[in-house]
Each structure stands twice: as C-alpha cells, then as structure tokens.
Amino acid sequence: MATLHPTTNPNVRIDRVDVLSDSWYTLRRVDFGYRDRHGTWSSHQREAYDRGNGATILLIDWSRRTVLLTRQFRIPAYLNGHVDGMLIETAAGLLDQDDAATAIRREAIEETGYNVREVTPLFELFMSPGSVTERVAFFVGEYTTEDRVGQGGGLVEEGEDIEVIEVDLDEALHYVDDGRIVDGKTVLLLQWARLNDPEKVGGSVC
Questions:
Q1: Is the pTM higher than 0.85?
Q2: pLDDT higher at 1 or 177
Q3: Which end of the chain has less neighbouring CB within 10 Å, N or C?
Q4: Domains of the chain: residue spans and CATH
Q5: Distance between CA atoms of 178 and 171, rounded to whole angstroms?
Q6: What is the DSSP string of the chain?
C-alpha cells in the first residue's frame, strides 16, 4: 500500500489526506505543497487511487516459440471505447501480503494452470503514475507442457472468468502491431521478448 505521508522529498509537503472512497480499493484526495526548481512553493490537490502493488509475468516456451496469455473482460476498457472489453493479457495480479515472486507464481497457477518452475525479475514500473499508486513487478518465466497442473481460469469466488490462450510468439507480436493486444503490461513484456529473442541474440535469456 502507498505511504500516506512520505518525507523523502524536501520539495513536497503533504498537508491533508482525505479518503473519498474505500469500497473496492481506496481513493484519496491529497492536498500538498510543491516547491518548483525555481524555489517557489505552490499548493495543489490531486486524487490517488490505491489498489496495492502488483506483478505480471510473460510465460514463454522458447523451444516451441509460444507464449501463454489470458483473455478476460475489463469493464474500464469497455467503458473507454474498447469494442468488447475482452483484453488479451499476460498473467497478473496484486501482491496482497506476498513478495512479488511468490505472488506471480500464485497468479500464474490460478489464471493459467501452469506451475512456473523459475521466475526471473525484469523491472518494476509505475503504470499510471498520474492517478494510480500501483507499482508493477515484471517477470519472465519459461514453461513446458509438463508444467500444467490445473485448468486455470481464475477464481470463481472472485468473479473471474479467464480464458487461457497459447499463441505463437511471432503471432503475439503481430497482435501488438495490429492492435489486438492493447494492454500496456503485455505489450511491454512482448517487446522485451522481441528484443531478447535467443534466435536473434543467441543463447538462453531465462
């Protein structure tokens, strides 16, 4: 969760924090002072949505050049003009009380049914820093057909209805190019795979 009154930046002064909504996650309004690079202080008010931090993983079989992705309905995308709200994504989820590596292994099994043997951390990014506090940890992990331990599909009790799809890597990259994949985290991980493809750079990358 986000720190409500951080003190590490001497040019920022948190004056007031009000909770506007605490139904699903937490929406806060923050009044703060900011000293610009010329030394002038000014007052600001912003809203920040706190849903905790998350993790995502590109599950890839380099030997067969395939990736495991998911497809599920996303109401925010649907409300903002996506034709049906069904987004193709990499497996992902919130950390809850786990570290990022533990959380993404859990999410991989829940969503895809595959038990990831080893996960490699890539980077951590703020995906929408203008309004959302979430920091996402990105991973890559190799899988084989023998690693499947369940059907995946998400947790029914959480209302999840996730379709697992296995796609050729080059086809998935084509989905990015033609707009069938529009999820930011997924695009980033597939572009990472494009840049680190062992057929092009040589050797193993995981």
A1: yes
A2: 177
A3: N
A4: 12-50 (no CATH), 54-199 (3.90.79.10)
A5: 10
A6: ---SS--S-TTEEEEEEEEEE-SSSEEEEEEEEEE-TTS-EEEEEEEEEE---EEEEEEEETTTTEEEEEEEE-HHHHHTT-SS-EEEE-EEEE-TTS-HHHHHHHHHHHHH-B--S--EEEEEEES-TTTB--EEEEEEEE--GGGB-S-----GGGT---EEEEEEHHHHHHHHHHTS---HHHHHHHHHHHHT-HHHH-S---
What region does 151 belong to: left with phi over 0, alpha with psi -120 to 50, or beta?
A: alpha
Question: Contact 29/17 with Cβ under 8 angstroms?
Answer: yes
* CA nearest neighbour of 166 among 83, 88, 80: 88
Residue with token string 């849903």: 51
Tell me how far apart the alpha carbons of residues 73 and 154 are, in angstroms, rounded to a whole number: 12
Q: How many angstroms separate the Cα of 116 from the Cα of each of 15, 120, 206?
A: 45, 11, 12
**Measured distance CA(206)–CA(85) in Å, rounded:** 32
pLDDT band at 205 (very low <50, low <70, confident <90, very high): low
